[in-house]
Amino acid sequence: MHLHDATHTLRLGAPLAKARGVVILLHGRGSSAEDIAGLVNVFNASDLAYLAPEAANNTWYPHRFLVPPAQNEPWLSSALATIDTLVAEALAAGIPSERLGLVGFSQGACLALDYAARHPRRYAFVAGLSGALIGPTDTARDCIDLQRTPVLVACAEADAHIPLEHVEHSAAALSAFNADVTKHIFPGSAHTVYPVEVDWLRKQIAGLPRAA
Questions:
Q1: Are the C-beta atoms of residues 14 and 45 closer than 8 Å to each other?
Q2: What is the set of domains in the chain, with CATH numbers?
Q3: How far apart are CA 53 and CA 36, in angstroms?
Q4: How many Cβ atoms from other residues are within 10 Å of residue 199's Cβ?
């Protein structure tokens, strides 16, 4: 399995130099940048830059997110470094973190939440669509301050890939990290993006401040 490369990023919307904000979109296991970029159409905000990196072999890390993080190395660190490269590019282009959103689905959701927990700052928003923090629920984490970043943690109650206890634990942990957490547990077992999640994302994007 190859490591990831931030140059393999699908870029849509406005160029960074002219964008009101930037949204980094992280696809799930076995999916692609093009698939997750379908969310751009529902956001309906052409003045944002959308960056959708693609994982090597379409998988960010080989094992489930439930295992100790060390078992997913070095791919996990490479995936997080890919996100960090794109975040640094946005910051260097003059887009402050308050206008930078992270959105991931499934394996990408786990990455989005974990990246925010490892790189605390005030983000525009962080959305974990059918995901949770990476590692067992007793994984040691630094005490951080997410400065009231709006964070969405959502999943089906019987999702075969994301145990409910991990979703509940992640919502509690992120709240303790001073995030403004919205938690949605949906009935059933569908591993998908729900309309309520799309509505939350649209609300966050609509509230992004205009560039100075």
A1: no
A2: 9-206 (3.40.50.1820)
A3: 10
A4: 11
Q: Are 90 and 16 in contact (CB under 8 A)?
A: yes
Q: Which amino acid is at 107?
A: Q
Does 126 score more than 70 pLDDT? yes
Rounded Cα distance, 103 and 111, in Å: 9
Phi-psi region of 147 (alpha: psi -120 to 50; beta: other; left: phi over 0): left
- For every residue of 67-98, DSSP letters joined together read S-GGGGTTHHHHHHHHHHHHHHHHHHTT--GG
Give the strand order in the sheet containing 100-105. 9-13, 48-53, 21-26, 100-105, 125-129, 150-156, 180-186
Q: Which two tokens stand for residue 30?
A: 């076995």
Q: Confirm if 101 and 24 have CB atoms less than 8 A apart.
A: yes
Written as six digits, the tokens of 38 are 């379908």
Q: Other CB atoms closer than 10 Å to residue 87's CB: what's the count?
A: 21
Tokens found for residue 107:
């394996």
Backbone angles phi, psi at 79, to 5 degrees: -65, -45
Rounded Cα gap, residues 177 and 143, in angstroms = 7
Q: pTM for this structure?
A: 0.96
DSSP SS3 for 179: coil
CA atoms of 27 and 13, how far apart (whole Å) = 18
Which pLDDT band holds residue 153 (cuts at 50, 70, 90)? Answer: very high
Cα–Cα distance, 147 to 101 (Å, whole number): 14
